[in-house]
Design a protein that fits this description.
The chain has about 575 residues and is of the alpha/beta class.
């Protein structure tokens, strides 16, 4: 196995001295076969790594969607055809940007690796985004080409009225599902489910046409280095305004290698089946369920929409061979509630359940373990770290609520908010910071935020943490006002900016409140400009301009928002029941 070779050839094994390093207390909690360091060569890139895996596991299943599978050999052929089309037919060149707007379909990884082979920078965009949200990202990244699911077509038409779209490739959900199932799926999505609104995009080409036109013999190999940017992954960072985190080939390779170093002894090359319910456009799933998946030659079972839980359960039942899965707290809870792990939906071969994107609640973890016999191995990451920084080791036998220990080659520290000194005492809170090969190059065209997020070479996370015994870390609070809804980051400032454009609104403020269903939900406080403003008007307006998970679930009208002497809204008072009682305004 490749990761075993790296452990022996490239990694520096921890010794007695390393385990006593006062600034690396987590080393004492590493399993015996986990190195403390990984190595990434400067000319390694994701495209070359895929070529090696496709040659090694040519006949193995790579992706399964709607019960249709493609092998690594077939997958590689499609990647080469699309790469040739992008380069030879569209004239795209290294350093340009390609945006992908689609859910978990086979077309997604084909598009990603075709773009990377051409030396393009990939931008992931949530297919549920409104036209306004899509426009903002496309303008920021200066996209040269967009590949999107046809359900996004109408919104792209709206975008085209605001900005020029240089090249657009449109795909249907069934395009890569074979000559019989594919057309049936496409027909159903258009005429039965009515998921595709009528749209008109001048010069748009179909995904299938792009593949048929692509001639691999016309492709000119691109000189790729590890330092080249592979993804502009948009995130709110430490503020609410989205910005593109520049993730290099080396960043992603390092993070995959770090995860392999921590979990590699539990993985079997070419034999794993990984369940992929979280969207691949989310950085956690993109790294673990795509980059790590192809590195170990696994078969990924793609789930288009886990919210359609009946279909999710059918997928689980049809694939008892699933050995690895990722998920968020709400998904793990729903699985137990619906009888997964019973004779109705057995998952007898599940060996690794990895939680990310949002905190896993202890009650859910306990129920999941009782039902499955597997502990949810929770980790911590952020887009700027590609994204994984800490994980609970596979040897963990209890759920502590900790985010785990730093990955190999990752340094962590907690810094006092008062004077900036490093904190190493247990239980003393401060801001969590990281340094390692997975840390982003920086934010795209945003030097001001780059300066803010870096602390003498360390990445500031904006999260408050404490050290626990054995070098484990625990998040206790957020510096940011970010709200996490079902694993997705929601920034209050974006919601407030949208609602503030309503003529009947004087002021507004969004906060996060606990939710059994999604972990957190958005609560919006509104000060009326016009007394006739209703809750329904606000909801309709939000449906127009905000993706579903960003929309307020609770809307409360108040007489005024609490403010500091300098006019800053003091969000903490909006959690005070007495304040809300005194200022309620229907």
């Amino acid at each position: 196995m490749e990761h075993q070779e790296k452990n022996s050839d490239d990694a520096i094994k921890k010794g007695a001295e390393g385990s006593r390093d006062p600034k690396r207390p987590w080393l004492e909690s590493y399993p015996p076969n986990v190195p403390d360091t990984i190595t990434v060569e400067p000319f390694e890139n994701l495209s070359d790594r895929l070529d090696k895996i496709c040659a090694q596991f040519a006949g193995h299943k790579a992706f399964t969607s709607f019960e249709h599978s493609v092998t690594y050999a077939r997958f590689e052929r499609m990647v080469k055809k699309l790469a040739a089309f992008l380069q030879a037919d569209l004239g795209l060149r290294k350093g340009q940007t390609l945006a992908i707007i689609m859910p978990n379909l086979i077309q997604y990884p084909v598009s990603v690796f075709a773009a990377l082979k051409c030396g393009l920078r990939v931008v992931n965009i949530n297919p549920l985004y409104t036209a306004r949200e899509i426009t903002g990202i496309l303008q920021s990244c200066d996209a040269s080409c967009v590949i999107a699911l046809n359900t996004v077509g109408r919104r792209l038409e709206d975008v085209s009225r605001v900005m020029p779209l240089k090249h657009v490739i449109i795909t249907g959900a069934g395009d890569l599902l074979g000559p019989f199932k594919g057309p049936l799926i496409n027909f159903a999505s258009i005429y039965i489910s009515r998921l595709v609104d009528h749209y008109f995009l001048r010069k748009a080409i179909s995904f299938k046409s792009a593949l048929s036109k692509g001639d691999p013999s016309l492709f000119t190999p691109v000189d790729l280095k590890g330092s080249d940017i592979a993804f502009l992954q948009y995130t709110g960072g430490t503020t609410g305004k989205p910005k593109g985190a520049m993730l290099s080939h080396s960043n992603l390779i390092a993070n995959v290698r770090q995860c392999l170093a921590m979990y590699g002894s539990e993985l079997k090359m070419g034999q794993e089946t990984i369940l992929t319910p979280l969207p691949l456009y989310h950085v956690f799933s993109m790294t673990v369920n795509l980059m790590l998946q192809v590195t170990i030659g696994a078969n990924s079972i793609l789930v288009v929409d886990p919210r359609r839980f009946g279909l999710f359960l059918k997928t689980v039942k049809r694939h008892p061979e699933i050995s690895i899965m990722t998920g968020v707290n709400t998904l793990f809870a729903a699985m137990v509630d619906h009888g997964v792990f019973t004779s109705k939906y057995p998952m007898k071969h599940l060996r690794l359940a990895i939680g990310g994107g949002a905190a896993v609640q202890s009650g859910v973890a306990e129920r999941f373990f009782k039902a499955s016999g597997q502990h949810i191995l929770e980790g911590y990451g952020l887009t700027e770290c590609s994204p994984v920084a800490c994980v609970n080791p596979y040897t963990a036998r209890v759920f502590t609520g900790s985010i785990g220990i730093p990955l190999p080659s990752t340094l962590a520290r907690i810094v006092s908010l008062d004077d900036g000194h490093e904190i190493w005492d247990l239980g003393v809170a401060g801001e969590l910071e990281f340094k390692g090969p997975q840390v982003m190059t920086g934010y795209y065209r945003n030097e001001a935020e780059n300066a803010h997020v870096r602390d003498d070479g360390w990445l500031r996370t904006g999260d408050i943490a404490v050290w626990q015994q054995g070098g484990y870390l625990k998040i206790v609070d957020r510096i940011k006002d970010m709200i996490i809804v079902s694993g997705f980051n929601v920034f209050p400032s974006e919601i407030e900016d949208v609602v503030s454009h309503m003529p009947k609104v004087r002021e507004c403020c969004a906060v996060g409140v606990p939710s059994e269903k999604s972990g957190e939900a958005v609560k919006l406080f509104v000060v009326k400009r016009d007394p006739s403003l209703s809750e329904e008007e606000v909801r309709v307006y939000c449906r127009t301009f905000l993706t579903g998970y960003k929309r307020p679930k609770i809307i409360s009208f108040v007489k005024a928002l609490p403010k500091s002497p300098v006019g800053k809204v003091m969000r903490r008072y909006l959690q005070d029941p007495q304040y809300l009682k005194d200022h309620q305004n229907g």
